[in-house]
Amino acid sequence: APRVFSGIQPSGGLTLGNYLGALKRFVEMQEEAYETIYCMVDLHAITVWQDPEKLRRATRELCAGFIASGIDPRKSILFNQSQVPEHAQLGWIFNCVARMGWMKRMTQFKDKAGKNAENASLGLFGYPALMAADILVYHATHVPVGEDQKQHLELTRDIAAKFNHDYGVDFFPLTEPVIEGAATRVMSLRDGSKKMSKSDPSDMSRINMTDDADTIAAKIRKARTDPEALPSEAKGLEERPEARNLVNIYAALADMSVDAVLSEVGGKQFSEFKPVLSDLAVAKLAPISTEMARLMEEPDEIDAILHQGSARAREIAAPILKKTYEIVGMVG
Ligand code: TYM
């Protein structure tokens, strides 16, 4: 079966962007004809400072988020990255394959490092090589992600191709990004030109997967919009980023196309559309946050799931790393 790998960082809480851009697709792919492997990438999280106690909690909460969203640990392998050392081991090999020039072009590094790139960690610079290792240590063929990860997945293909070329093998597959659905780039509720992000200082800019019904309703009510009514076709959303974002969110939550949504709500004012969107968001998200809170009462159960998941992951990763070492010329 084609194999899916994807990861989410346990740095801060899950947002609606993570859910619609990634998690919801993870669940759908689990139910399709794929072998699915999902990872809490704690090694990636520490490329920027993480308080240890908060990292522990965020890892467990993220695991609860996966399960509450519909990931079934019997169907998917669910684990945290640090417990499968093959990720870091293959990551080192890829540090020696990837070129400085490739890494310097990564927009996520530029955004995260900000003006003072000299002070960024070396891990942040090498982040995409470890990400390539996450994927390729399983020979994964499909990687569901949001739009913002596209460049990293192109780099993953470049690393696989260069490794295969340099060693004269056909060993690592060229992975397909899966960037699909109405909400591959969910924008901030306060600014339609910015991505919805867990690191935005304004909590009103995002919906957190742990927000209660009243908070979700208040954030949607206060979301920035323009004064026009909704158009009846997708074309009418061009140049209206805030309007487009809310319609995309509705479409993704309702599993409808943008055109189908607009054929229902076209002509309505935002004062009418927002309460409908808010009801839909609460109906879809409240059960997830309730289940997350319930699971967080059972940290031992969560730890056991992660522990079993890493054992299963290692069974796949270890022989692929061993073969890689042989190709590279390590005696062992
Ligand atoms: P992270 O933790 O930033 O985000 C996890 C997933 O959520 C998606 N996402 C969004 N999608 C739509 N709209 C948004 N506003 C939004 N914000 C986040 C991301 O695209 C991502 O799919 N580098 C990855 C983690 C990673 C990984 C991997 C992913 C590490 N190794 C291997 C795939 C395969 C990241 O930072 O995700």
UniProtKB/TrEMBL annotation:
InterPro entries: aa-tRNA-synth_I_CS, aa-tRNA-synth_Ic, Rossmann-like_a/b/a_fold, Trp-tRNA-ligase, Trp-tRNA-ligase_bac-type, Trp-tRNA_synthetase. ATP binds at Q9, P10, S11, G17, N18, G146, E147, D148, V186, K195, M196, S197, K198, S199. L-tryptophan binds at D134. A motif ('HIGH' region) lies at residues 10-18. It is found in: Cytoplasm. The keyword Magnesium does not apply. One of its GO terms (cellular component) is cytosol. Its EC number is 6.1.1.2. GO terms for biological process: tryptophanyl-tRNA aminoacylation. The keyword Kinase does not apply. Keywords: Aminoacyl-tRNA synthetase, ATP-binding, Cytoplasm, Ligase, Nucleotide-binding, Protein biosynthesis. GO terms for molecular function: ATP binding; tryptophan-tRNA ligase activity. It catalyses: tRNA(Trp) + L-tryptophan + ATP = L-tryptophyl-tRNA(Trp) + AMP + diphosphate + H(+). A motif ('KMSKS' region) lies at residues 195-199. It is an enzyme of class 6 (ligase). PANTHER family: TRYPTOPHAN--TRNA LIGASE, MITOCHONDRIAL. Homodimer. Catalyzes the attachment of tryptophan to tRNA(Trp). Belongs to the class-I aminoacyl-tRNA synthetase family. This is Tryptophan--tRNA ligase. It comes from Roseivivax lentus. The lineage of its organism: Bacteria, Pseudomonadati, Pseudomonadota, Alphaproteobacteria, Rhodobacterales.
